[in-house]
């Protein structure tokens, strides 16, 4: 049946109408507000650095993914959006739907300021599909007094699988900041879950001075909520906890509960997992896991405010969405007319050894693969490199490669004792892709210009720490662009692979998408996302290389590189 066709322009006009009435005081937030930049003239949205298959709306600023869910055959992605500019502000819940997590139809915003309880902004939150099949959204509203309050919203028409219109009951807010709660640091409710006692539970992020807290609330009817008497589900001495997520992974006796928080102080995310007792709402992380900055991360790069959902359509699987902000300047964003991309949706599961979570791009992404280049058993001698030829647009590609260290691990560089306790990012800053090594650095140069003046390295480097091999995986964008005002951190993690046991083999997959370099090492043990802005290595001028800047030979046992078709992002609904 033919459905209404909503042109992009109509959509923008709709947004403007919806947003003209309320005034927009500057809310207390972790984002810098630039009122002078809130312009209707967004400039050029089309840009050589826009992504082809990562999720982006046609223009303007986006941040956190919100309320992700699967309902009646349709995936819903809501996200924080500024309908007026490429800088943070005027935040609404924009809405997109998909049947495959790859191609998207943009709908009108689902939730925007209309009432005293959200007049100053509709911030992040989550969706819960209730037992009767009805979805509920819980989100943070910024009320007339600038307080952060939690509100509920329900679909207006349950027979519409696109859930276009949402109704906010008058009894909102359902969770105001209680006494002792910091009303300007109280936000981002999780998806709710039902306990054996028939009570709903959810967690809200907050802080008490320097202590970050995941506060547990309970309700019998999803309307009247009270904080659990037992206190917060968890806390840490790490500053504000934003965007908490709490969910089970594994099955049967292996089930663990994951608690993820986004640390406002570092702008990175950390997780623990452990046991959760439904009877008394106690969460105890596994002893080996640390909270906060010493903890595990989903992604060791540019990835924040993430949220998972249970995809009941597939097996079921848990799918993770996260936001990748820009690493250029605000002036660049205003000129581009857009800022922010969603990372590729990732399937997430508990590693068989129970030591960490694993991630892999959802299989649907492979439906965009086109022209294929295949290399097998090619030696990459110490100090050499070669170009992978045959891709039509190496700036929009999916590369799977398996390396094997064939010259042994004897030459691995000693691990400097001064690095013990330091994070991998510090180590990679000291030993980047251009620092010759013993075993490695070896890996890919992506988004490279023909003279290699611009290139982003994704690589491995092996250290010898008193006889134990430590493997560093790193994205090094220090040469990624001629532009010198960009944020170019070397993002890195130590990857838990025992090369002695794998016969020196280590696999890598990198999704290259113009300004996005999203890498997965060790079959999903390590993820690192970087944003880069080449000036020469754009479109079909970009090149792809394999390099080995170490003293030890390595071999590419397999390399499969694919041109990626662009995802279809439309404003028209075809059914
Ligand atoms: C409450 O949160 C705001 C925003 O982060 C902060 O400026 C303020 O110091 C906090 N107040 C207390 C008492 O922690
Ligand atoms: C919660 O219950 C479990 C088992 O029922 C028990 O081991 C644990 O000590 C309890 N925790 C608290 C804080 O009561
Ligand atoms: C890759 O190339 C090898 C050798 O040319 C061939 O045996 C193999 O089937 C190819 N793989 C794919 C997926 O095309
Ligand atoms: C993304 O942008 C960089 C560069 O401006 C900042 O350093 C990061 O803090 C920021 N990340 C997030 C999650 O806001």
TrEMBL record:
Listed GO biological process terms: carbohydrate metabolic process
PROSITE patterns: GLYCOSYL_HYDROL_F32
Name used for this protein in its record: Beta-fructofuranosidase
Residues covered by the Glycosyl hydrolase family 32 C-terminal domain: 364-562
Endpoints of the signal sequence: 1-29
Pfam family name, one: Glyco_hydro_32C
Species this chain originates from: Brachypodium distachyon
Keywords, in A-Z order: Disulfide bond, Glycoprotein, Glycosidase, Hydrolase, Signal
Family: Belongs to the glycosyl hydrolase 32 family.
SMART domains in the record: Glyco_32 (SM00640)
Superkingdom of this protein's organism: Eukaryota
Domain Glycosyl hydrolase family 32 N-terminal: 54-361
One MF term in the entry's GO annotations: hydrolase activity, hydrolyzing O-glycosyl compounds
CDD domains noted in UniProt: GH32_Fruct1-like (cd18624)
């Amino acid at each position: 049946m033919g459905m209404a066709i909503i042109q992009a322009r109509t959509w923008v006009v709709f947004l403007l109408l919806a947003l003209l009435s309320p005034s927009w005081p500057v809310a207390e937030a972790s984002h810098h507000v630039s009122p002078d930049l809130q312009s209707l003239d967004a400039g050029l949205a089309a840009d050589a650095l826009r992504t082809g298959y990562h999720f982006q709306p046609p223009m303007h600023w986006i941040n956190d993914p919100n309320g992700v869910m699967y309902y009646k055959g349709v995936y819903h992605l809501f996200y924080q959006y500024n309908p007026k500019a490429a800088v943070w502000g005027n935040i609404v819940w924009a809405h997109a739907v998909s049947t495959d997590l790859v191609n998207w139809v943009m709908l009108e915003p689902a939730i925007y300021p209309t009432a005293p309880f959200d007049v100053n902004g509709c911030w992040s939150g989550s969706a819960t599909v209730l037992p009767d099949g009805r979805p509920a959204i819980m989100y943070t509203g910024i009320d007339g007094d600038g307080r952060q309050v939690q509100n509920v919203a329900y679909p207006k028409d349950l027979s519409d699988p696109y859930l276009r219109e949402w109704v906010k009951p008058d009894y909102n807010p359902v969770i105001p900041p209680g006494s002792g709660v910091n009303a300007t640091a109280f936000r981002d409710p999780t998806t709710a879950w039902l306990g054996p006692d028939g009570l709903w539970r959810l967690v809200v992020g907050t802080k008490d001075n320097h202590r970050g807290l995941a506060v547990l609330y309970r309700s019998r009817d999803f309307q009247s909520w009270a904080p659990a008497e037992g206190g917060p589900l968890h806390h840490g001495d790490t500053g504000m906890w934003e965007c908490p997520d709490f969910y089970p992974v594994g099955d049967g006796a292996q089930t663990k509960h994951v608690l993820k928080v986004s640390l406002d102080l570092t702008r990175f995310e950390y997780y623990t997992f452990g046991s959760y007792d439904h009877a008394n709402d106690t969460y105890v992380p596994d002893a080996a896991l640390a909270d906060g900055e010493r903890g595990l991360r989903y992604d060791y790069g540019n990835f924040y405010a993430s949220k998972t959902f249970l995809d009941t359509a597939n097996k079921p699987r848990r799918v993770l969405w996260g936001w990748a902000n820009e690493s250029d300047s605000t002036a660049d964003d205003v000129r581009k007319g857009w800022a922010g991309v969603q990372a590729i949706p990732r399937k997430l599961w508990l590693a068989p050894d129970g030591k960490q979570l694993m991630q892999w791009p959802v299989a649907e992404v492979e439906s965009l693969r086109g022209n294929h280049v295949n290399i097998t058993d090619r030696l990459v001698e110490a100090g050499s490199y070669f170009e992978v030829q045959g891709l039509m647009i190496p700036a929009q590609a999916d590369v799977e490669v398996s390396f094997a260290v064939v010259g042994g691990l004897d030459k691995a560089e000693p691990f400097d004792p001064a690095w013990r306790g330091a994070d991998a990012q510090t180590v990679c800053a000291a030993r980047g892709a251009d620092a010759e090594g013993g075993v490695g650095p070896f890996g890919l140069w992506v988004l490279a210009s023909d003279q290699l003046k611009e290139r982003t390295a994704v690589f491995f480097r092996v250290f010898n720490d008193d006889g134990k091999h430590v493997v560093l995986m790193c994205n090094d964008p220090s040469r990624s662009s001629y532009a010198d005002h960009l944020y170019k951190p070397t993002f890195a993690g130590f990857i838990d692979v025992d090369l002695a046991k794998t016969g020196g083999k280590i696999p890598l997959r990198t999704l290259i998408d113009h300004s996005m370099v999203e890498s997965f090492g060790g079959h999903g043990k390590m993820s690192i996302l970087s944003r880069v802005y080449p000036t020469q290595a754009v479109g079909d001028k970009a090149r792809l290389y394999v390099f080995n800047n170490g003293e030890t030979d390595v071999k590419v046992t397999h390399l499969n590189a694919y041109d990626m078709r662009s995802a279809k992002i439309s404003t028209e609904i075809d059914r």
